[in-house]
User: What shape does this take?
Amino acid sequence: MNVEELFRRYLEQRREMGESELVLDTLTVDEVLRIVGAHGKRAVAPARPAVGGDWRRALIEADAAVPAPRPAAPQADAPRRSAVPLASSSPLAPLAPAARLSDLAPPGLVVGAGEAELFGGPIGRAATLGEIAEMVRTCTRCPLYATAINPVPGEGSATAQLMCIGEAPGATEDETGRPFVGQAGKLLTDILRAINLSREEVFIANVMKHRPPGNRNPTPDEITACSPYLVRQVELIRPKVILALGTFAAQTLLDTKLAIGKLRGAMHWYHGTPLIATYHPAALLRNPGWKKPTWEDVKLVRRILDSVAA
Ligand code: URA
Assistant: This one.
């Protein structure tokens, strides 16, 4: 089934459910159905003139020039640095091992709350996304596992050119174990489609892999505990662009307190990977005025993908 047919069925379902507007734009379902050439049950309103760069244009173009999937990258079985053995002729006399590291020297500064995972702990050694998902499944690094129904490690292509990163699973994600499948997720799927990407060819994840109870904000300790999973996912996938969805993801990844309104519209870098920050789809549902800037941001994502693919 081609994309147009899928899209037509989707829109017809929405219309049958009594919906008349697509969430991210002001088009009526009838107008969009007209664009994709379907025959509606109701009279179709005349199409309004296209405005440059709006969702209508994106939807029209959505079926064109979907980039060919990249050849599968070799999974991360690359040789790792081995520990350098101490030369047997070392001038250092062997020292008795300390019972506790803190016995070796006076206390100093602590960076990252004692977190050592980024430097080759078990998570940093995970060789595949599947291994990470398995580690997340049995994770007890913070208390969130105890209240969540399911872990939500993330899903999508292991060779994705784009990684979309949100905050944390919500209720629907917690129930299903899948990221961005609630109302906000449907909107994210629409946004991706408008820049010629399907959910299957990107990787969708969250900073937090378990739902905080009642969708409360994660604590700094919980973020520290969970972050190595995302870092390793980014390392394994090596996306060409990261799209940070919403204030929390953008501020966490960019290690800043700047508001999303200040972060969006620019190209940031996350360990050498371009990062675009934009409004969270859930926020778009509440604030339609943010649709336009979001559209500008995702067009920028598309342009980066096109530029680096060339
Ligand atoms: N919001 C998020 O940030 N992530 C999800 O997976 C769902 C909603």
User: Anything to note?
Assistant: The radius of gyration is 23 Å. Residues 166-170, 173, 179-180, 182, 184-185, 206, 282 surround uracil (CB under 6 Å).
